[in-house]
Amino acid sequence: MLTLCGSPISNYYNKVKLALLEKGVAFTEELVPIMSKNEAVLAASPLAKIPYIRTPEGALCESQAIMEYIETAYPQPPLLPAGAFAAAKVRELITFIDLHLELVARDLYPQAFFGGTVSESSQARVRKQLEKNIAAFRRLAKFSPFVAGDTFTQADCAAFVSLPLVAMATKAVLGEDLLTAGDVDYKTYVKFIGERPSAQKVAADRKAAQQKK
């Protein structure tokens, strides 16, 4: 059986968790703090990043590598299209969500969520980059009704957990939800995905973990 290690507060942990739930894979969860210095954690995730998983074959870190492992090891139901090009388009969307949206917005998180401050110059840099990247993402995203088209895919696992964070962080720090300003109707989309039992489980567990903090 797989063990998913990390925290239900982490969007990347929840990206993997959503995929496991959608596939009906049996797994257990182990709470691991962010940036742990425990040697057992470092042996599994050398940068102490979460999530990581423990498999019968060993440990694996980095969320997208984990997603690819899950897809190969547990192919049904598929979360990637069968066709090479269609599957690549899903991966393309994941790259945009993870790297070009969420990772850029992450520079705002210290002020948005943790009581810190972000300099005005950093705010301006993030705004400029996100406005460019959101416009590019809007050209790729389908939302018809899923982010990559008419089927739930790995891209939805990424979008459901990360798009709201981008919106909340930009609203809190920049005074404007840049996704909405960029004509990305993520609220309707998140509500739609949120009707799935897997998404409801992820959201409920995240809320419970936040209330324990």
Descriptive notes:
The protein is an alpha+beta fold and 213 residues long. The protein has helices spanning 11-23, 39-44, 63-73, 84-105, 109-113, 120-140, 154-174, 178-181, 186-193, 197-212, and strands spanning 2-6, 27-31, 52-55, 58-61. The model has no long low-confidence stretch (mean pLDDT 96).
Task: Give a count of the beta strands, DSSP E runs of length 2 or more.
Answer: 4
Q: What is the level-2 CATH architecture name of the largest domain?
A: Up-down Bundle
Which strand order does the major sheet show?
A: 2-1-3-4
The whole-angstrom Rg is: 17 Å
Number of helices: 10
Q: How far do the termini sit from each other? A: 29 Å
Q: What is the general shape?
A: globular
Strand proportion? 5-15%
How would you sum up the major sheet?
Answer: 4 strands, mixed
How many structural domains are formed by the residues?
Answer: 2
Attribute tags:
213 residues; alpha+beta; Glutaredoxin; Glutathione S-transferase Yfyf (Class Pi), Chain A, domain 2; 4 strands; globular
